[in-house]
Design a protein that fits this description.
Length: about 475
């Protein structure tokens, strides 16, 4: 008779993690380092148990009560002990939450008989919403706290310690809260503009940190039901309607950085309506750049900010905008608003190209004559990312022409005859770039392709004969 092997119970499936947590040979420099190590191990926990679920629920109740207590407290009235306790609770919930999802059940029949209280399932003796949704909603609301220590700690916890399986619930909660926090003041008088701006700043930084960490689509769920591109566009639209000021400039810089990160990771994020959203972001973000004669800086100064601070922030924003646009415009066909006929669409697309191309050229000319003598960089000296403002403008011009060669080449060829040598040189760089990265000639007929190449060759001959 063959003897059956003993059944491995769930607690022993986590034995490796428990052994590492209790290891005596671990040396740490302080309590903070020890807490980070423990939370890192909790994120690796794979097998839920009744004890784990009960511990999460118990800590959640304590965390929720403490969160409500400290939500609006001023920084100078919040004692360090309460903040440390709340911070440790936050890290525990974020790290272990992924283990407490019902999808982690290994043997459904066995776990059902144990009556496990999953955090993503509604409990009969609790509220109508799940523990997980209450945790996410409270965490997102803490991003708009008046206490800078609370909102910064919340953002850090969600961006660095949250289990990747909770990214999707977090994005869903952010999308839901956007509808509340960014609602019209006429219908939502309980939230000030300052609170909304604070939320936009913290949420944008949080999204950027999470998106940067993504290594594949499996980390955020498949299929992804939340469009991060649309979230980014909502942030931009919200800020675009507000008056200028030092705080607004700082938040816009963060939105540009988020836009840049999302665009670079768009293959992983499975963005929907990508072309339409990028066209809208192009229009909004370009409007944030202080072009020659722009009243933006004067408006911000009149709002009470220091002149030197506003000038510095606006230059930083200009560079952040161009870096975002250099990524946004890559392989971006310009797309007019919906509801146009085919004939109207072609004319409108040509007008859009004309407008954007001239705008970027004006920036190039402005930078070479004004800012070029005292260039400002967003990065520290020695960084690998040393693209100048003219470089970024040329990249955007190259992208626009490459993706819209059907309407753009005829308009842009005249730039090869520009009286300014710097502009002519920049245009040759644009032509070089689009030939390297490829163009949309494949969408044209054979005759049209030959015509476009002949025109490019003619400009090159003329330029080198000057």
């Amino acid at each position: 008779m063959v003897e059956k092997s003993p059944k491995i119970t769930t607690p022993f499936r986590n034995a490796d993690i428990y052994a590492q947590i209790s290891a005596k040979n671990f040396r740490f420099t302080g309590l903070v380092a020890f807490q980070k190590r423990v939370r890192g191990l909790l994120r690796q926990m794979q097998h839920p148990t009744a004890g784990i679920l009960a511990a999460w629920e118990n800590i959640f109740d304590k965390w929720l009560a403490l969160s409500r207590q400290i939500y609006s407290q001023a920084a100078d009235t919040l004692d360090d002990r309460s903040l440390t306790e709340w911070r440790n609770y936050s890290g525990f919930l974020a790290s272990l939450g992924g283990t407490c999802l019902s999808t982690r059940a290994i043997i459904p029949e066995e776990t059902a008989s144990l009556g496990l209280r999953w955090i993503d399932k509604v409990l009969l003796d609790s509220f109508d919403e799940t523990l997980l949704s209450r945790y996410m909603k409270q965490s997102v609301q803490l991003l708009a706290s008046n206490n800078v220590r609370i909102r910064e700690a919340t953002r850090e916890t969600l961006s660095t310690e949250l289990c990747s399986s909770l990214y999707l619930p977090l994005f869903e909660t952010l999308e839901s809260e956007l509808g509340v926090l960014f609602d019209s003041p006429r219908t939502n008088t309980s939230l000030s503009i300052e609170s909304r701006i604070i939320f936009a700043e913290q949420a944008a930084a949080l999204l950027k940190s999470i998106v940067e960490r993504l290594g594949g689509p499996t980390e955020i769920g498949s299929p992804l039901s939340i469009d991060i591109g649309a979230l980014t566009l909502n942030f931009a639209k919200f800020l675009d309607d507000l008056s200028e000021g030092a705080s607004m400039l700082r938040v816009k810089i963060k939105i540009c950085q988020l836009c840049e990160t999302v665009t670079q990771k768009k293959e992983l994020l499975n963005l929907r309506h990508d072309v339409r959203i990028r066209n809208q972001l192009l229009e909004i973000i370009f409007g944030w750049i202080a072009r020659p004669g722009s009243p933006k800086v004067d408006a911000a100064i009149s709002a009470g900010a220091r002149v030197d601070e506003i000038l510095r922030l606006q230059k930083d924003l200009d560079k952040a905008c161009l870096k975002a646009l250099a990524d946004l415009t890559f392989r971006l066909p310009l797309q007019p608003a919906e509801g146009q006929t085919d004939a109207d669409t072609s004319d409108l697309k040509s007008q859009m190209f004309h407008t954007y191309f001239n705008r970027f050229l004006s920036l190039l000319n402005y930078e070479t004559t004004e800012i070029g003598r005292n260039e400002v960089r967003l990065v520290s000296p020695g960084s690998e990312d040393l693209m100048t403002t003219p470089d970024l403008a040329i990249t955007a011009l190259s992208n626009l022409l490459s993706a819209n060669i059907d309407v753009g080449l005829k308009h842009s060829l005249g730039i090869g005859y520009h009286e300014d040598l710097d502009i002519r040189t920049a245009f040759v760089k644009v032509l070089c770039n689009i030939l390297i990265q490829g163009t949309e000639f494949n969408n044209l007929s054979d005759a049209a392709v030959n015509e476009k190449y002949d025109e490019l060759l003619q400009v090159r001959i003329i330029f080198y004969s000057m």
